[in-house]
Specification:
Layout (H helix, E strand, L loop, with lengths): L1 H11 L3 H18 L6 E6 L3 H15 L3 E6 L8 H12 L4 E2 L9 E5 L11 H12 L3 E5 L21 E5 L11 H5 L1 E5 L23 H4 L14 E5 L6 H13 L4 E7 L3 H7 L4 E5 L4 H10 L2 E4 L7 H13 L3 E4 L2 H6 L12 E4 L3 H8 L3 H6 L1 H11 L2 E5 L5 E3 L6 E2 L12 H14 L4 H23 L6 H20 L1
Parallel strand pairs: 1-2, 1-4, 2-3, 4-5, 5-6, 6-7, 8-9, 8-11, 9-10, 11-12, 12-13, 13-14
Antiparallel strand pairs: 14-15, 15-16
């Protein structure tokens, strides 16, 4: 954001104070649009340009007839040039500017203390200010990002402002969508002020997401002149004895995402169960490791998914190692497949297949040898290190799932909900990604779309059944509804 801001000011020539005026105008207009009670507003300003936005917003509120005051929490000697100008204008217009904690109550408190550049723990007086703001009654609004939230990773830097509404200037900051920062941001509204974001083009360190309305343009096309072979042959190597459910969920999800033919390669004990649950699938079974049969199946498939309910027996390990060593097609590795792979990571550097890994935090910990807490705090850097070393797409599953691959910007999923935190949800995701890859999608794009489609299905399932009662199979039903809605939009 600083680079884009500097580019806009220095190369395009839009003065910084003009951008500040636009930011203040958007802050005020957005609060009105969001029905914030502005009758008695207190804007808490720091010394930087975020504080300058706050002083300008106070002036605009006063111009519109609202009772607006400023609590200046910064230091006079640290004022930026633009903030000093805005503070001076506000003072000359008679806006009350406090330097000590005001005793009045306010209908809204607007946080303009720190902007996106904060990278140190908040201590001393600033900590007291933020704690005081949080304790006050009234609605809470953050300008750009809640003060105290690290814009890079969402971590709380000692303490942080708890907002009901965050008005993101030009772009939503990553710290507002990653947890725990997401819990402090409240509703998020991104507002344009004229910063030239073209400098982000091609940048691998700038994340993207998908939004409502985009799905019709992202799903792989289907032709009237086609047959089952047109949409790919899937090999699901899933399900150890007693784990037919994982095999069923992943295979049904692959069909739901549009795959033409799914073959499940599973333990013999699962045959009758799977034939009853999913008669559309071809069932092939193992009683042990069969090298020739595996080569035949890997040669038959257009895409492979391995690991859902696979178990971690010696037979499972041999099947996993054989697959990674011999596969030449896109291959999704999930669950037990990841746990087995973690002891043989050198194979990822040697495989000819296009590998897509779908670890949750604990599985990523096994793959990298890093603690879960470290991954949570430094997920972007760790994903960068991982994808630089291993030629794979990594889908790091969490409350905010991130898909990463060398040479692509990272995808951050903002859809989904807590109802999806159920056994089998990961099997469904692996199946959805596999089904999209079977239709010819490039691995990273298929993984990103699969994550989003899976999450949208979770939102549809929650809307149908509530947050507590959704099962993994309901996610598939939700995905079907989302795809149908997307098709209807295309037809219109």
């Amino acid at each position: 954001m600083k680079e884009a801001d500097d580019h806009t000011i220095q190369q395009i020539g839009i003065p910084s104070v003009v951008l500040m005026e636009r930011a203040a105008l958007q802050i005020v207009d957005t609060m009105i649009r969001e029905k914030i009670d502005l009758r008695k507003a207190l804007i808490v300003c720091g010394s930087g340009n975020n504080g300058g936005d706050g002083f300008a917003a106070a002036r605009l509120l006063k111009e519109r007839g609202y009772d607006a005051s400023v609590f200046f929490a910064g230091k006079e000697g640290s004022l930026s040039e633009e903030c000093r100008l805005q503070k001076s204008i506000a003072g000359r217009l008679g806006i009350r500017i406090f330097t000590e904690f005001p005793e009045e109550e306010y209908t809204v408190i607007i946080d303009a203390v720190f902007g996106a550049g904060l990278n140190r723990e908040i201590t001393g007086r600033f900590r007291e200010v933020i704690c005081w703001m949080n304790k006050k009654s009234g609605q809470k609004v953050a300008a750009d990002i809640p003060s105290g939230i690290c814009s890079e990773n969402g971590q709380v830097l000692g303490t942080a402002f708890r907002a009901h509404l965050t008005i993101a200037i030009e772009c939503v900051k990553l710290g507002c969508v990653l947890y725990p920062g997401r819990e402090y941001a409240g509703r998020i509204a991104a507002v344009p002020i004229g910063i030239d974001t073209s400098v982000y083009s091609g940048r691998e360190d700038v994340c993207f997401t998908y939004e409502n309305g985009e799905m019709p343009y992202l799903l792989p096309p289907r032709s009237e002149n086609s047959h089952k072979g047109s949409y790919g042959k899937v090999l699901m190597i899933t399900g150890s004895p007693g784990m037919a459910g994982a095999a069923f969920l992943s295979a049904r999800a692959a069909y739901t995402a549009g795959a033409g033919l799914v073959r499940i390669y599973t333990a013999e004990e699962n045959r009758s169960v799977l034939q009853g649950l999913l008669p559309e699938a071809v069932i092939s079974c193992w009683n042990g490791y069969d090298k020739e049969e595996m080569d035949r199946l890997l040669g038959w498939a257009d895409v492979v998914c391995i690991g859902c309910g696979l178990g971690q027996t010696s037979v499972s390990e041999k099947i996993l190692l054989h697959t990674v060593q011999r596969v030449k097609k896109p291959c999704v590795i999930d669950a037990d497949g990841l746990n087995l792979l973690s002891a043989h990571m050198e194979l990822l550097e040697q495989t000819e297949g296009k590998i897509i890994l779908t670890p949750h935090m604990k599985e990523m910990s096994r793959l990298t040898g890093k603690a879960v807490e470290e991954i949570a705090e430094q997920r972007m850097q760790i994903l960068d290190q991982f994808t630089e070393r291993y030629p794979a797409v990594c889908v790091l599953k969490d409350s905010r799932t991130v898909a990463a691959c060398l040479e692509y910007p990272k995808f951050v999923n903002l859809a989904g909900n807590s109802a999806m935190a159920k056994a089998g949800s990961g099997d469904v995701l692996a199946g959805v990604i596999t089904g999209l890859l079977a239709q010819g999608m490039e691995p990273f794009r298929g993984a990103a779309l699969g994550v989003w489609l899976h999450a949208c299905g979770g939102d549809a399932a929650r809307d149908e059944k509530g947050a507590y009662s959704v099962l993994a199979g309901d996610l598939i039903d939700g995905i079907q509804k989302c795809i149908k809605n997307a098709e209807e939009c295309i037809e219109k």
